[in-house]
Design a protein that fits this description.
about 240 residues; alpha+beta; six-stranded antiparallel β-sheet; three-stranded antiparallel β-sheet; 19 strands
């Protein structure tokens, strides 16, 4: 295969992956706590495919090196539900998931059949003293801005919020949860404010994502056209050489 085609194909593979990421962003534009993502790429120098030109400079292929995640604050949307909690600031709720400790910005909490505060997917929410248990007979709880939870004027627990020195330690783990893949020690975030009766919206900007989708689609088409033209030139060159011989 021609070196031009190799380079073009490497770029097409990145664009296809980028299109998948953009489509995922758009589909999660209404998912509470979702953080917009973007492909990270870099050049990957390689020698010429045919090795016919000794000492020639390397070709720069395009390599997918991962996905970057923007953890900037999303807008808080009022829901009026007493167990919904939005985070204002840099922090995460800690979740005692069955598969291990996890973290989330999605504060759509409910009570299970035992009164334990859980996530939308049923995982227990960790408080400062472990799982938080509420008593439905005592009415709606009050959640203060520092996370303290009270029922009937009596404190029953406190939501714990943590932050990480490097966000790159967090890896998506489904259901709006993140896993501490970097084994960092999360730090308490006492300066973060919590808002009862609201949830953090996704920070995806649909108009920007749709614009990016159009740009990626057009670039993919341009590269496909370039590859077709290169293939035609190669075919014509081979035909001309055959006539000369």
């Amino acid at each position: 295969m021609d070196n031009t085609l190799y380079v073009a194909l490497s770029r097409q593979m990145i664009l296809a992956r980028e299109m998948d990421v953009i489509a995922n962003n758009i589909s999660n534009a209404d998912t509470p706590g979702f953080k917009v993502e973007q492909i990270m790429s870099q050049t990957n120098p390689k020698p010429l495919a045919d090795g016919s030109v000794p000492g020639s400079p390397n070709l720069n292929f395009v390599l997918d090196v991962g996905v970057a995640r923007d953890f900037s604050q999303g807008a808080l949307s009022q829901t009026g539900r007493p167990l919904d909690v939005g985070i204002e600031g840099d922090g995460f709720f800690k979740i005692a998931a069955a598969r291990g400790e996890r973290f989330t910005r999605d504060g759509r909490f409910t009570m299970d059949s035992k009164g334990v505060l859980v996530t939308a997917s049923g995982e227990p929410v960790s408080g400062d003293g472990g799982p938080i248990t509420l008593d439905p007979s005592k009415g709606e709880p009050t959640i203060a801005s520092d996370g303290a939870i009270s029922q009937g004027g009596v404190r029953v627990g406190k939501l714990s919020v943590y932050r990480f020195a490097a966000m790159s330690a967090l890896e998506k783990d489904g259901d709006g949860l993140y896993r501490n893949a970097g084994n960092q020690s999360p730090e308490a975030a006492p300066d973060v404010r919590l808002s009862q009766g609201s949830v953090e919206s996704s920070n995806v900007k649909p108009v920007i994502e749709i614009t990016r989708m159009i740009e990626v689609s057009r670039e993919y088409e341009r590269i496909a056209k370039l590859m077709d033209q290169t293939s035609q030139l190669n075919a014509e060159a081979i035909q001309r050489l055959g006539k000369v011989n």
